[in-house]
Sequence to fold (398 residues):
Amino acid sequence: MQTPRHLPFIPLGLALAGAFLLAACGGKETPPGPGAGGPGAPAVTVVTVQTESVAVASELPGRTSPYQIAELRPQVTGIVKERLFKEGSEVKAGQVLYRIDPATYQAAFDSAQANLARAEANLYAARLKAGRYAELVKIEAVSKQANDEADAALKQAQADVGAARAALDRTRIDLGYTRVTSPIAGRISRSAVTPGALVTANQDDALATVQKLDPIYVDLTQSSADMLRMRRDLESGRLQRAAGNAVPVQLVLEDGSVYGAEGKLAFSEVTVDEGTGSVTLRAVFPNPKGELLPGMYVRARLTQGTQDNAILLPHAAVSRDPRGNATVMLVNAENTVEPRVVKTGQSIGDKWVVSEGLAPGDRVIVEGLQKAHPGSPVQVQEAGAAAAAPAAPAAVAK
Fold:
């Protein structure tokens, strides 16, 4: 018996009929939810970009330096008899720190005092003689030449007294220099000499150094380009000045801790360093406990105004491409990923200030970046939102 030629099409017809039957039983397919990117799409967490007002600050490197500093050098030559201070202690202005043997200077002072007394005695005699001759010349009892000589002797005696008095003052000064005093109040360093050492007037090596550390200076460096950009932003109104045009300064120490007291900007150098292209700024900080010592490396944060409508992004949302550009991953309206190059400014806490590349309402991925590829669909969850509760199990028919 020969098989009919139309029988091979029967299985195909049965398959089509089965497909229509399954479609009729399944009903309509439920569309994905608003945050879904389709079945099997990876889940990511996003933040929706918003604007806010932030304080604009510059973080600059710097070093501490004394508010005042004085190097002690002897102004007379002699043997050090005593050292009258404890190394590393606080000293007062005018406090005697060293005593140099005063014997020879005391003798010179006594001699100058005697010379002054002799000159004053000669002046007294010359004044009396000149007075008598002035009366006698009127009645021609003495010659006019004798009267002129008496006047000349009086003037010479007056000059001798002046010279003797100046010599006495000089010896008094030298005698005073045998007591080396502190010109300022502050903390004194270790001593370079001990009693018995010979010191010379105006020697190169200092005996000790006194530094005033409360308050204390912090010298900072800022590039001239940053300074110009800040000034332009202030002039254009993009930045708003702080109250009273004051520039507060916050200090970050070498160990990363923040110094407890706030300082203020004292002045800005008017000359740009040709070698580094930077400008020196000087801030003043209170230092009552002596925590800041000269030469410490610090970082200073200068609040220089406020920026309205600023955009902040967590550090985790920003990465760098091979060219070094800052990039973020966004989720568009179709719940697919797209990269975006942005421009970042200062860092505030754990966030970047984004100056270009984003607009309010953009959704930026902050978690799940390793699963998000440009052009791929994702399932979106807003940062801080509670995760969706799992669906309740279906009831089992009995």
